[in-house]
């Protein structure tokens, strides 16, 4: 245990405390002075930069262009779509004055930018030829929260919000699903989160949307975390904001819109899926440091070897040599807590044998590797590392995926072990309200790739048209 | 003149109207619903993305790490540094409630983040070993403005704000100047703005700083635009926020801080320096499209030639083929108004001779170039293009740089032609207030690289220790 680092509670003893300990000791974030806000320190922000960089390229491949819309939304504009304002009203941070001067109208800090962007679309599209417009912005948003936790729930968070407008409902719907697929591929292949995907129920869909699609990740403790959503609005917003265009038949028609978002919550998902009692375990794609080189002393031989190793790896990996005067043991602990995938220790005794010691963070291995083989060894081991942490997460999800046909069965499952529980469900909002009240759980999604058949709702017993995953969720 | 584009007023007839026309017709921005805010449309935001991408690499080369601090600052925190709050108080957008609930304390939307970051530094640094910390964030900030113009002055803008803390005042001062140099090199070499640099006078320095350094660009109309600033705070903020560390002699000492920022104003500087009566002229480094290929018809030969050209250029340039069904003439006009550096027209008559027609936006040339020579021709011409627009801007600055020794001389110069006027100046705030009142101009900087000698102040006649550039400014 390094100095200045407090002991991390075991995740099997107290998962919530474990999470707090890991977040604090790994140097990702600090708390901001306003309740519920957080400071992204360099190590935490670097993960977000890596997420942005990968996703931004994927967005651009499908023709999405980045934009920036203003932070503040006039109350009168927000109030135009009733479900939307009802959904957000209690969480809206409101600017009422500038200096000492009261404003004529309340201005909301954006909780999301649908209304600003749809109003802009109204000006931009006259004809079907002007569409689609595929916009995205990387911004901060605010939704005031009563209870907050770093990454999972904070009054301010960072995200991408995509907004598109189309002349054709099918094209809009396809885009909605396309963006969900980009999120799913990213979560699966880069964050190594074995997410499930599907449609949200009526109760859980986004305020103002016709359909909401989601990816859901299962945390180590068996709770679900919504990790990215994509919304098909149909012409709901277009009608509320009068967004019309002239179609190919020279007729006026309301346009079709979508939005999709993914936020810094994902960093919470990474932690609660992969981290362990020694600290973070970061997927190599988004790790700020993929390989850390630690020198046992500062002899000429050690320094020159670690410099050569650095030079041989830096074209392919994010490599860091900690040159501070912290102790060897401290540096080891820090690399572990920070979840650096691969650690190379360079010391005189090893060098006498022409080797260095390489550790993998996931399995905490220690392997002596000949200097000439280091690059090849790491190329292989970093792939194995990623495969292994995905496998562990998938195993957890599989061991925590259940079925139930009645509320009693459902409760019995959750009493034993939290997880995804597939149940036949009627889809009614009031029935889901009832489940929520009785069990503090709700639906996560109507999953893709599951055979859907008619049955009786697990709660109310009415006809059910599909099966739905319910779970306790963050 | 293409359809849907209004005529651009000549910049020699009405510079302000010309600016508005260019901004509007080139599709960079639109106005937001809250007065003084703006929407960055894809073409405008892409310029900012290019600026970010180049500068971010330069910052990281000197060890700067990106972070994200919260949007909202409690009033009690902001009020700790008196000069700072006095400087910003009237411009602060203030959150007073969430939903219907009044907050216990006013929260300001950041106009800049010094106070948040210095408070965080206080927690992070115990010893000289913990420094330097070199932080940067790319964010939105708000400073409520009475009169606003796109890019130049808006209530919300985007910028980088760097904040650093050091154990040694010389190191902090050196960093301040280093970051100014990065800004200057970037403005000169990438934006092709022949900026001058130097220190701000007492009156013009940043609220709370000991020293402020600036780069100033001269616009086509002879007005100056502050284009990037770097501030040395000494231990001013450290004292106000009690940021102490243990130095090498085991004694407590206040830390030394800096900050530096550059904003979307720069896009205004690019426009007002390089654009002309036909629209934008964008430096190739930051142009969203560097080469636009326009097909005269959609014959097989034309399409396949333009596709081949695209493929041969796309590894080195940002290339765009407009495949919309807009007319040929419209596409030409649009490429001109949008300031695309190089335009290639592909048509059957040219192809019969094995050539395409290539135009440079700056000199509006039209050159027939053999297909096999296109890449080499463009490699050369795009360099010439950048050189030429820099040369034109430099010529304007040189023709608008003057000297004066008395207020009468100064007024006489400005009556003839606006520009930078080098004057001996006492440095007193009250004297500069007086100049401002009499002439609506103020000092821009105490320039680097100018021989500084003792003289008499051009306004008050008292002893002057240095020469200062005064100018009318945006």
TrEMBL record, chains A, B:
Q: Matching PROSITE patterns, A to Z?
A: AA_TRNA_LIGASE_II (PS50862)
Among the entry's GO cellular component annotations, what is one? aminoacyl-tRNA synthetase multienzyme complex
Q: Name one GO molecular function term.
A: ATP binding
EC class of the enzyme, as a word: ligase
| Locations listed in the record | Cytoplasm
Q: Name one GO biological process term.
A: prolyl-tRNA aminoacylation
Q: Which domain of life is it from?
A: Bacteria
Tell me the keywords, alphabetical order: Aminoacyl-tRNA synthetase, ATP-binding, Cytoplasm, Ligase, Nucleotide-binding, Protein biosynthesis
Instruction: Tell me which SMART domains the record gives.
Output: ProRS-C_1 (SM00946)
User: What's a Pfam family in this record?
Assistant: HGTP_anticodon
Gene3D superfamilies referenced in this protein's UniProt entry, alphabetically: Anticodon-binding domain, Bira Bifunctional Protein, Domain 2, C-terminal domain of ProRS
Is ATP-binding found in the keyword set? Answer: yes
Key word Membrane present in the record? no
Which Enzyme Commission numbers does its entry carry? 6.1.1.15
Give start and end of each Aminoacyl-transfer RNA synthetases class-II family profile domain: 36-283
Instruction: Identify its protein family.
Output: Belongs to the class-II aminoacyl-tRNA synthetase family. ProS type 3 subfamily.
Comment block on domains: Consists of three domains: the N-terminal catalytic domain, the anticodon-binding domain and the C-terminal extension.
The task this protein performs is described as:
Catalyzes the attachment of proline to tRNA(Pro) in a two-step reaction: proline is first activated by ATP to form Pro-AMP and then transferred to the acceptor end of tRNA(Pro).
Please give the subunit comment from the record: Homodimer.
Q: What is this protein called?
A: Proline--tRNA ligase
What would be the name of the gene that encodes this protein? proS
């Amino acid at each position: 245990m390094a100095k200045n680092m407090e002991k991390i509670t075991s995740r099997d003893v107290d998962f919530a405390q474990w999470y707090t300990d890991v977040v604090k000791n790994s140097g990702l974030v600090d708390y901001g002075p306003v309740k519920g806000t957080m400071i992204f320190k360099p190590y935490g922000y670097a993960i977000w930069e890596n997420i942005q960089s990968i996703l931004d390229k994927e967005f651009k491949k499908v023709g999405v262009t980045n934009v920036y819309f203003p932070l503040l939304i006039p109350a009168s504009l927000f109030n135009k779509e009733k479900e939307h304002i009802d959904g957000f009203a209690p969480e809206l941070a409101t600017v009422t004055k500038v200096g000492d001067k009261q404003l004529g109208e309340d201005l909301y800090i954006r909780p999301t930018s649908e209304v600003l962007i749809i109003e802009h679309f109204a000006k931009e599209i006259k004809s079907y030829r002007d569409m689609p417009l595929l916009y995205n912005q990387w911004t901060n948003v605010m939704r005031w929260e009563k209870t907050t936790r770093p990454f999972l729930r904070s009054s301010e968070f960072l995200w991408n919000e995509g907004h598109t407008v189309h002349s054709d409902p099918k094209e809009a719907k396809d885009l909605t699903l396309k963006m969900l697929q980009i999120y799913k591929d990213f979560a699966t292949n880069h964050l190594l989160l074995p997410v499930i995907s599907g449609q949200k129920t009526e109760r859980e869909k986004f305020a103002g949307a016709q359909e909401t699609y989601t990816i859901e990740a299962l945390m180590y403790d068996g709770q679900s975390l919504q990790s990215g959503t994509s919304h098909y609005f149909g012409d709901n917003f277009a009608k509320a904001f009068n967004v019309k265009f002239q179609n190919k038949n020279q007729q006026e028609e309301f346009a079709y819109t979508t939005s999709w978002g993914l936020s810094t919550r994902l960093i919470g998902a990474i932690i609660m899926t992969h981290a362990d009692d020694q600290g973070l375990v970061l997927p190599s794609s988004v790790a700020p440091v993929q390989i850390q080189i630690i020198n046992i002393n500062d002899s000429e031989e050690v320094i020159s070897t670690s410099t050569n190793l650095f030079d041989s790896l830096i074209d392919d990996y994010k490599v860091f040599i900690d040159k501070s005067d912290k102790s060897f043991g401290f540096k080891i602990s820090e690399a572990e807590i920070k979840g650096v995938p691969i650690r190379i220790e360079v010391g005189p005794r090893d060098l006498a044998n022409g080797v260095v010691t390489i550790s993998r963070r996931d399995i905490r291995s220690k392997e002596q590797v000949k200097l000439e083989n280091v690059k090849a060894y790491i190329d292989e081991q970093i792939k194995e590392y990623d495969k292994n942490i995905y496998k562990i997460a998938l195993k957890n999800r599989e061991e925590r995926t259940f079925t139930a046909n009645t509320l009693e069965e459902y409760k019995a499952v959750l009493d034993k072990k939290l997880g995804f529980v597939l149940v036949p469900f009627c889809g009614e909002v009031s029935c889901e309200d009832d489940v929520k009240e009785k069990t503090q759980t709700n639906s996560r999604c109507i999953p893709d790739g599951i055979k859907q058949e008619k049955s009786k709702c697990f709660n109310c017993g009415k006809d059910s048209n599909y099966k739905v995953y319910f779970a306790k969720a963050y």
